[in-house]
Write a structure and sequence with these properties.
The complex is a heterodimer. Chain A has 15 helices and no strands. By secondary structure, chain A is mainly α. In chain A, helix 14 (234-243) runs antiparallel to helix 15. Chain A is globular and about 70 Å long. Chain B is 81% helix and 0% strand. The two termini of chain B are 36 Å apart. Classes of the chains: A mainly alpha, B mainly alpha. At the A-B interface, helix 1, helix 2, helix 4, helix 6 and helix 7 of A face helix 1, helix 3, helix 4, helix 5 and helix 6 of B.
């Protein structure tokens, strides 16, 4: 506002069209995005705060949130290890098929979560390809936690790799060479030089993976079987609560999940802006 | 290290994709066609495509307008508006669906008012699907157009203005040709995203065959009733559609970059 908006001729002539266009955009955003968000808050509190608290302290819901959190933590750990390896290989190594692999990484973003869940069911389900192996080893994957972890791993695969790759590319390899010249071992160089240089990539990758894992629904619904109780995550709990017309429970849980995801992602964005 | 990384990608991504493609084509292209042309299946695919197309058109117009307003005008609340655009990316789509049901559902004041006075049903009807898709994909067009608009040189516009062109003419003849490509790829990306959407739609549209069942919801239903051929065939169609669109956008963006740089 310190700089006048009247910068070029065509802006000066069109003050009314200009106000009109700004007005249209503001109304659109208010109606499309803000109204539903406000609606959810109002819906959750329709019977007062005590109903919300009662709904949120339901032991089934707490167990579902616990399951969601443990899936998200495991997924973050796996992607931190393997995602680093994949990003490292894609940035540092030159080999045939590198572009192909690089293109494949983003596929989960383009895939329907339902199809992801179904693919895993074809592999691990009761009549899946791997059913004989799983039966012999007595491992239950589908309709159990391992299947839900696999589904969440699949849909969150790109985040860590895509956050780490640019940081790795920007990272000056001379530091590593210097450390190696001074006699540091490969591991020492990796832990003392490389990991600290990549830390912001790790932070963003972890938060985005975690936030996406919290909200995953379609893939987990199919592979988890949606049997209430044993395999409910927070999102599945919302789905089942709606089906049973437990509106306050569904809305309050959705509100908590929405706030949690928003806080994580917006917090990272703020951090990113501050660092710039 | 390379072996570890490559086998991770192979195990996690490639094998599941091969399995589903093989399963969908188990009875050949003909068998797949038979599954896809079942009335309930083709109606689900049709609904997915037309609601996605309507969404992409509205998103194109409103996204272009939003980007224009954000780049060219200064007004109070602009920074806030810019931040709000990205909110949909952070909200789980299931939660988006719940939000719309709360606002427009039959129990809600607004929903029942619209139904009674305007005879307009939003929830359990196509408008709800379109609204949910618009919410989820709002940033797609805005951000692709915004970055190009920011990088445009203003000189041509100033010359046109000096020569007496009206602001509408300047937009149509000078600015829009530069934005057409990013606008189109933003619309295609939002359409690709819409093809696979499940969480918001299953809440908002319900699961009414031939009326509000989209392709993703149809696959869910067929998996539940263990109709493997139908589920696999429609999954393969959805995958092909989404991958084809993403590939197309990739090529378009490469071409734009080559021309610009």
């Amino acid at each position: 506002m310190s700089k006048p908006a009247i910068a070029s001729p065509q802006l000066r002539q069109g003050s009314w069209p200009r106000r009109g266009l700004i007005g249209i955009v503001l109304v659109y955003v208010a109606f499309l995005i803000l109204a539903p968000m406000a609606g959810l808050i109002a819906g959750a509190f329709q019977h007062g705060p005590s109903a919300v608290i009662a709904a949120l302290t339901d032991p089934n819901l707490l167990a579902a949130f616990g399951r969601t959190l443990s899936i998200a933590v495991i997924v973050v750990v796996v992607h931190t290890i393997f995602g680093t390896a994949v990003a490292w290989v894609l940035v540092r190594h030159r080999f045939r098929g590198r572009d192909l692999i690089n293109g494949l990484i983003d596929l989960p973003f383009a895939m329907s979560p339902v199809v992801v869940g179904y693919m895993l069911l074809l592999l691990f389900g009761r009549r899946g390809l791997l059913a004989p192996v799983l039966q012999a080893l007595d491992i239950q994957v589908a309709f159990a936690l391992p299947g839900m972890i696999l589904a969440t791993l699949f849909v969150t695969m790109p985040f860590m790799i895509r956050e780490l790759m640019p940081v790795l590319e920007a990272f000056d390899m001379e530091q590593e060479h210097a450390a190696a010249t001074l006699g540091a071992s490969g591991w020492q160089t990796f832990w003392r030089i490389t990991v600290p240089a990549l830390r912001w990539g790790f932070v963003y990758g972890i938060v985005l993976t975690f936030a996406r894992a919290l909200g995953e629904f379609g893939a987990v619904l199919i592979i988890g079987g949606g049997v209430e109780g044993g395999t409910d995550t927070a999102t599945l709990y919302i789905y089942h609560a709606l089906e049973e017309r437990q509106y306050v429970a569904a809305y309050s849980t959705a509100l908590v999940l929405g706030i949690l995801s928003l806080a994580l992602v917006l917090g990272t964005d703020l951090l990113r802006k501050k660092r710039k | 290290m390379r072996g570890l990384a490559l086998s991770y990608v192979l195990l996690m991504l490639v094998i599941p994709l091969i399995v589903i493609a093989q399963d969908g084509l188990r009875e050949g292209v003909e068998g797949m066609w038979r599954a896809v042309s079942q009335p309930v299946a083709s109606s689900a695919l049709g609904l997915t495509v037309w609601t996605g197309a309507v969404m992409a058109l509205i998103n194109g117009v409103m996204g272009l307008l939003t980007a224009h307003v954000l780049v060219r005008y200064t007004f109070p609340g602009k920074a806030l508006l810019n931040a709000i655009i990205d909110l949909p990316l952070a909200i789980p789509t299931l939660v988006t669906g719940v939000m719309l049901v709360v606002l427009y559902g039959p129990q809600a004041a607004l929903g029942s008012w619209l139904d009674k006075t305007l005879d307009l049903r939003i929830i359990f009807a196509p408008p709800g699907i379109i609204l949910a898709l618009l919410f989820i994909t709002y940033p797609f067009v805005v951000r692709t157009v915004q970055s190009v608009l920011l990088s445009l040189e203003r000189e041509q516009e100033e010359v046109a203005a000096t020569l007496g062109a009206s602001s509408w003419t300047i937009f149509r003849r000078v600015i829009f040709p530069e934005l057409a490509m990013p606008l189109f790829s933003g619309m295609l990306l939002s359409f690709a995203r819409a093809v696979g959407e499940f969480g918001a739609i299953v809440i908002v549209a319900g699961n009414i065959p031939l009326r509000t069942q989209t392709a993703a919801v149809y696959v869910f239903g067929e998996v539940e009733s263990e109709n493997r051929m139908a589920a696999s065939a429609i999954s393969v169609v959805m995958l092909a559609l989404a991958f084809g669109l993403v590939f197309l956008v990739d090529q378009l963006q490469k071409r734009t970059r080559r021309r610009a740089g």
